[in-house]
Design a protein that fits this description.
By secondary structure, this protein is mainly alpha-helical. 67% of the residues lie in helices and 0% in strands. It is built from ten helices and no strands. The longest helix has 32 residues, at 105-136.
Length: 261
């Protein structure tokens, strides 16, 4: 841990992003545990996936995410380490990329409009899927809608805390230096991207419930469009959308694997 404390302040927020990946590896390890054949244990009745149980599930998810360091081990540390390294690499190039590229006001405006529209679609998708499931009495669709909405709320809760901790300047400020821990940014921190984490958490949940190739291509393709357009709009640095996208995707998949019937 001493080595991490000696790092540049600009890289400190990456450690928070890495912590978010741990519960997913931990949940995989738990799923691979096999009970002894001569000592069967009674299995608790699964908690139903309903709108009424969603607040309780969100609290359970948040507890798992923020206590995840206790589940870090050699078998599940690869993902967090890779994300930390990739984010660190991008942070070192963020200023150079954003100070000399994507400076067209017209491009920025169109990209911002596109990202807002796509994000709105991802917020509406779980509601629409749930509504169609309720109309057609399709339990799979209603579950997908509920878990998709739960994943979005989980990701927003995590992201807002990271924003408050990181306090990173937007690319439009101070010649895109992207400095962290600037109290002047208030609640408008750039790291990570809200748009990216919302899009990828919804996409991850939907594509996990309906895991056909066409669904995955559509969901992840549109989510990628959100992430890319946030950079083109000069609203976020590449490292902001990388962390938002990765954490959102993992939260979406985690929620489905934990609660689906």
């Amino acid at each position: 841990m001493n080595r991490f404390r000696r790092q540049s302040p600009n890289r400190t927020p990456i450690l928070f992003a890495a912590l978010l990946l741990l519960p997913f590896a931990g949940s995989v390890s738990a799923q691979n545990t096999v009970a002894l054949p001569d000592a069967p244990q009674p299995q608790p009745k699964p908690d139903p996936v309903t709108i009424r149980t969603t607040p309780r599930h969100i609290l359970q998810d948040q507890e798992a995410i923020w206590t995840s360091p206790a589940r870090l081990n050699e078998s599940n540390a690869v993902g967090p380490v890779l994300l930390v390294l990739a984010t660190a690499a991008l942070i070192t190039t963020d200023h150079q990329v954003m100070s000399s590229h994507f400076t067209s006001a017209s491009l920025n405006s169109h990209a911002s409009t596109a990202s807002n529209g796509l994000m709105g679609g991802f917020i509406a998708a779980p509601v629409a899927i749930y509504g169609l499931g309720a109309i057609h009495h399709d339990d799979h669709a209603t579950e997908t809608g509920i878990l998709g909405g739960e994943a979005v709320l989980d990701s927003l809760g995590v992201n807002e805390i990271l924003k408050i901790v990181s306090l990173r300047e937007r690319p439009t400020l101070d010649n895109a230096k992207g400095k962290f821990f600037q109290t002047s940014v208030g609640f408008n921190s750039s790291f990570p991207s809200n748009h990216a984490i919302i899009a990828w958490s919804a996409a991850g949940a939907i594509a996990t419930e309906y895991n056909g190739p066409l669904t995955k291509i559509t969901a992840y393709g549109l989510a990628s469009g959100v992430s890319i357009s946030r950079v083109l709009a000069r609203q976020h640095f590449p490292s902001d959308v990388l962390v938002g996208s990765a954490v959102g995707w993992l939260i979406g998949r985690y929620v489905v694997h934990r609660h689906q019937h």
